[in-house]
Amino acid sequence: RRGASLTDLAEKIGVDAASLVQVLFHLGEMVTATQSVSDETLEILGAELEYNIEVVSPEDEDRELLESFDVDFGEDLGDEDDLAARPPVVTVMGHVDHGKTKLLDAYRKSNVVSGEAGGITQKIGAYQVEANVDDQDRKITFIDTPGHEAFTAMRARGAKSTDIAVLVVAADDGVMPQTIEAMNHAIAAEVPVVVAVNKVDKPAADPTRVRGQLSEYGLVPEEYGGDTQFVDVSALTGQGLDELLEAIVLTADAALDLRANPDMPAQGVAIEAHLDKGRGAVATVLVHRGTLHIGDSIVAGSAHGRVRAMINDLGENITEAPPSMPVQVLGLTSVPGAGDNFLVVEDDRVARQIADKREARMRAAQQAKSSRRKTLDQLFEQ
Ligand code: GDP
Ligand code: MG
């Protein structure tokens, strides 16, 4: 396991840790028994002891755990013939105050059915918007939440939860540090970017400057011969909002093959979760593949349970959630973390076993961390 200590290793291979410290000392490395050692050190040690040591990442370890229950996560999308188009999942990113929230609110408002004038729409951290492109009704899923954190967490876990990033840049302010940071996140995750040049209603707006600035970073507008769509918008007046949806759909169609099999056990990612006084653990999940049904046994991170109810972005109770649909799920026994994957398994027993194993692993990792810290503290005390 990555970040393992000599004590961990000693336990695994049934020797005492002190002798491992000694072996390393003779190889010219000074390491204490509880200190975490690098992958290379572990491998050197393995070679010396004629053990074949393989360092596995937490992701691989989890994959192995799931495989031991005959569950495959994420890889298998099913037969080519069973795949159906699914809506793109979009994250909105950008520098603070450039208009991310305002833009999302503008879309959400248009999403609220008229008559619900009070706007008692549930905020579930993600929602779907209808776009009419080439006379076709197309859905787009927006992830709302504290966007960045969830995005970063999901990326760290290798869960691909966003198909497209909308980079919001205020036309009066131009490219700022967090604009670049957000852009780099998207590029690292290999997520195509659509640029929303916002606040074009402002007298000081200079959308051309934004295009020039981002071109220098490699995001070249289509009109300059590049392959990135730039759309001038105003979240305040509504200008360009339909064009932005169209650009998202066109980018999805041109660059991505967004299909999933709706007839498999559902899998996806938890994008937000909290404990509600009356309803217990409430998790907003995004379905990647398959369809989630009421009554399904699920495991999400180290939480598990059976889907008792599902609520969509309009606050309506629903009985099934197809690919790319965000839903609130009730029925989990505890609160999963943002970015944790979720999956439907055979029955409650399997769900509980997987959750328990993950929980135990998390606790062990935490303990290892705090004992390492203790060792360091002791070192400094001397
Ligand atoms: P965020 O930090 O990126 O979420 O930015 P907000 O959505 O909170 O917007 C920051 C400020 O800019 C708020 O005062 C908004 O009302 C304002 N704002 C956002 N979009 C526009 C726009 O298109 N035009 C103008 N004039 N103001 C906007
Ligand atoms: Mg905001």
Automatic annotation (TrEMBL):
<feature type="binding site">
    <location>
        <begin position="198"/>
        <end position="201"/>
    </location>
    <ligand>
        <name>GTP</name>
    </ligand>
</feature>
<protein>
    <recommendedName>
        <fullName>Translation initiation factor IF-2</fullName>
    </recommendedName>
</protein>
<dbReference type="GO" id="GO:0005829">
    <property type="term" value="C:cytosol"/>
</dbReference>
<dbReference type="GO" id="GO:0005525">
    <property type="term" value="F:GTP binding"/>
</dbReference>
<feature type="domain" description="Tr-type G">
    <location>
        <begin position="85"/>
        <end position="256"/>
    </location>
</feature>
<keyword id="KW-0396">Initiation factor</keyword>
<keyword id="KW-0342">GTP-binding</keyword>
<feature type="binding site">
    <location>
        <begin position="144"/>
        <end position="148"/>
    </location>
    <ligand>
        <name>GTP</name>
    </ligand>
</feature>
<comment type="similarity">
    <text>Belongs to the TRAFAC class translation factor GTPase superfamily. Classic translation factor GTPase family. IF-2 subfamily.</text>
</comment>
<dbReference type="GO" id="GO:0003924">
    <property type="term" value="F:GTPase activity"/>
</dbReference>
<keyword id="KW-0963">Cytoplasm</keyword>
<comment type="function">
    <text>One of the essential components for the initiation of protein synthesis. Protects formylmethionyl-tRNA from spontaneous hydrolysis and promotes its binding to the 30S ribosomal subunits. Also involved in the hydrolysis of GTP during the formation of the 70S ribosomal complex.</text>
</comment>
<keyword id="KW-0547">Nucleotide-binding</keyword>
<keyword id="KW-0648">Protein biosynthesis</keyword>
<dbReference type="GO" id="GO:0003743">
    <property type="term" value="F:translation initiation factor activity"/>
</dbReference>
<feature type="binding site">
    <location>
        <begin position="94"/>
        <end position="101"/>
    </location>
    <ligand>
        <name>GTP</name>
    </ligand>
</feature>
